[in-house]
């Protein structure tokens, strides 16, 4: 879908959206700074130093002789360092270094509970550079407990792909394979009359999806907690409600964090742990270097290579195995891809293959049955770099208009047909992260999705399955809009 589909009819909408160009200075300049291409960096070409990095940071003895090193489970009480949760970068890195596990040591393994045994380990026995192996600690007990909690409405699983620092038009520039794969869903052709066993999916792209400000916190907190970013606001992750309703929850990151945002400084934020999470391997020194440099650190311009693959490939592999392990349960899986969160504007494309393969494999194997898929960003390109120095107008427009695609299974009943017709209208309406939050609540709670809200949750959004009056949506409605691109019509 291209920008010509954006409608700014003044008789329908209270404001007109500024439309960024597909071809502009961002598109022209970014490839010049693709250092991974210039330096011929390919993750399948192993480096000598890979043999030693993990062993050098380890607290284990006789590391040269160890054949298998396991990453610690990062969920639970053991993750505390100096009395505070090991959630972000330096504290999580310290936790990982101090708790690596020698899988050759049978005596050490005897004292590790089943649910604390490494899900991810590096095997040096056949490859001197190491091979990353992933095995999910499936819990039958947890599965049965959550099945007993499951509410009896027709709630879907939720797969949430979170793309940090990525505008809508830049998604199409960088994710060629993924966007071509998604096109099959984005042309709504009415409702299916096929057999129930073959599920049909309908995709909707929200062309006027607008962020609040060009920072993760300002958008992720409304998206997953339903409140504005304010230090004195009480914030509770939607994961809490998911667990109460019987969902098995999984978190996959590609950065050395346990949460996608540094919210440790907020005293009123209730951090709710997921049941499974992929975090520790992102602290491996092959891929993680602390700082904000151009060439290293979380925002470095070079692709992140980890044991023969882009690090994001391992993250998606973990996500796929989690999804398949709990196929009899309702699942909520959030995968955070930060490859676009860097200075050149070109590194995101090196995660395209991984995202495409992940979605295609789940879809082709019918593993997305009864699943709503969110593909959403928090803001467009907002980091320092040549774009900020030149400061072109399209760069400023893109910052405010992230990608947001919703893929919904066809349930073939009157209720869902009405909901789909509402979504079609809402594609052209000004949408914010609050609407994502209430859409998630609608999926898991049904008609009671607006009950039992916190006082801080001021009902600033609406489920995308419900009618949203386009005339009531404009920049003046929200107190926290930054560089608003929806200009009021006269």
Description:
The chain is of the alpha/beta class. The protein is 28% helix and 14% strand. It has helices spanning 25-29, 35-38, 50-57, 89-98, 106-110, 140-149, 168-174, 176-182, 216-225, 238-244, 311-325, 352-364, 386-390, 393-399, 414-426, 433-445, and strands at 15-17, 68-70, 80-81, 84-85, 101-102, 120-123, 131-134, 157-163, 201-205, 235-236, 248-252, 269-270, 276-278, 305-306, 309-310, 331-337, 371-377, 404-409, 486-488. Strand 6 and strand 7 (131-134) form a beta hairpin. Helix 11 runs parallel beside helix 12. The longest helix has 15 residues, at 311-325.
What layout of secondary structure does this protein have?
Layout (H helix, E strand, L loop, with lengths): L14 E3 L7 H5 L5 H4 L11 H8 L10 E3 L9 E2 L2 E2 L3 H10 L2 E2 L3 H5 L9 E4 L7 E4 L5 H10 L7 E7 L4 H7 L1 H7 L18 E5 L10 H10 L9 E2 L1 H7 L3 E5 L16 E2 L5 E3 L26 E2 L2 E2 H15 L5 E7 L14 H13 L6 E7 L8 H5 L2 H7 L4 E6 L4 H13 L6 H13 L40 E3 L2
Parallel strand pairs: 8-16, 8-17, 10-12, 11-13, 11-16
Antiparallel strand pairs: 1-19, 2-5, 2-6, 3-4, 6-7, 9-18, 14-15, 17-18
Helix pairs in contact: 8-12, 9-16, 11-12
Helix tally equals 16
- Using the coordinates shown, work out and report the CATH topology: Alkaline Phosphatase, subunit A
Number of E strands? 19
- List the uncertain runs: none
Strand percent estimate: 5-15%
Concise structural overview:
The protein is α/β, with parallel strands linked by helices.
What keyword list fits this structure?
14% strand, 16 helices, alpha/beta, 4-stranded antiparallel sheet, 28% helix
């Amino acid at each position: 879908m291209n920008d010509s589909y954006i409608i700014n009819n003044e008789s329908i909408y209270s404001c007109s959206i500024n439309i960024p160009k597909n071809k502009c200075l961002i598109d022209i300049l970014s490839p010049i700074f693709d250092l991974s291409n210039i330096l011929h960096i390919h993750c399948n070409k192993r480096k000598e130093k890979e043999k030693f990095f993990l062993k050098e940071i380890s607290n284990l003895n006789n590391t040269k002789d160890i054949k298998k090193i396991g990453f610690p489970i990062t969920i639970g009480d053991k993750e505390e360092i100096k009395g505070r949760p090991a959630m972000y970068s330096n504290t999580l890195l310290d936790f990982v270094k101090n708790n690596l596990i020698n899988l050759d040591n049978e005596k050490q393994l005897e004292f590790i509970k089943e649910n604390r045994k490494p899900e991810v380990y590096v095997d040096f026995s056949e490859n001197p550079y190491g091979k990353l192996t992933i095995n999910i600690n499936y819990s039958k007990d947890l599965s049965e407990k959550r099945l007993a909690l499951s509410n009896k409405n027709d709630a879907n699983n939720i797969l949430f792909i979170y793309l940090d620092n990525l505008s809508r038009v830049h998604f199409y520039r960088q994710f060629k394979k993924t966007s071509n794969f998604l096109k099959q869903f984005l042309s709504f052709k009415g409702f299916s009359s096929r057999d129930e066993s073959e599920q049909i999916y309908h995709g909707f792209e929200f062309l006027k999806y607008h962020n609040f400000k060009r920072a993760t916190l300002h958008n992720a907190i409304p998206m997953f907690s339903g409140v504005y970013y304010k230090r004195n606001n009480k914030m509770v992750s939607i994961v809490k409600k998911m667990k109460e309703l019987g969902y098995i929850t999984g978190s996959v990151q590609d950065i050395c964090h346990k949460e996608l945002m540094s919210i440790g400084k907020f005293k009123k934020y209730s951090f709710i742990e997921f049941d499974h999470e992929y975090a520790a391997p992102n602290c491996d020194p092959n891929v993680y270097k602390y700082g904000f440099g151009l060439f290293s650190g979380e925002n470095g311009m070079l692709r992140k290579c980890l044991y023969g693959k882009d690090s994001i490939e391992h993250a998606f592999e973990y996500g796929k195995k989690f999804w398949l392990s709990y196929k009899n349960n309702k699942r909520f899986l959030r995968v955070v891809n930060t490859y676009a969160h860097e200075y050149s504007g070109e590194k995101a494309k090196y995660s395209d293959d991984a995202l495409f393969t992940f979605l295609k494999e789940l879809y082709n194997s019918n593993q997305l049955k009864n699943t709503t898929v969110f593909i959403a960003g928090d803001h467009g390109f907002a980091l320092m770099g040549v774009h900020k120095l030149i400061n072109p107008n399209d760069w400023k427009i893109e910052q405010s208009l992230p990608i947001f695609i919703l893929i919904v299974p066809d349930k073939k009943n009157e209720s869902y047909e009405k909901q789909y017709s509402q979504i079609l209208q809402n594609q052209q309406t000004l949408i914010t992260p609050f609407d994502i939050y209430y859409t998630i609540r609608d999926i898991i709670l049904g008609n009671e999705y607006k009950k039992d809200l916190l006082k801080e949750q001021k009902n600033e959004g609406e489920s995308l399955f419900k009618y949203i009056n386009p005339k009531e949506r404009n920049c003046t409605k929200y107190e926290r809009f930054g560089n608003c691109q929806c200009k009021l019509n006269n």
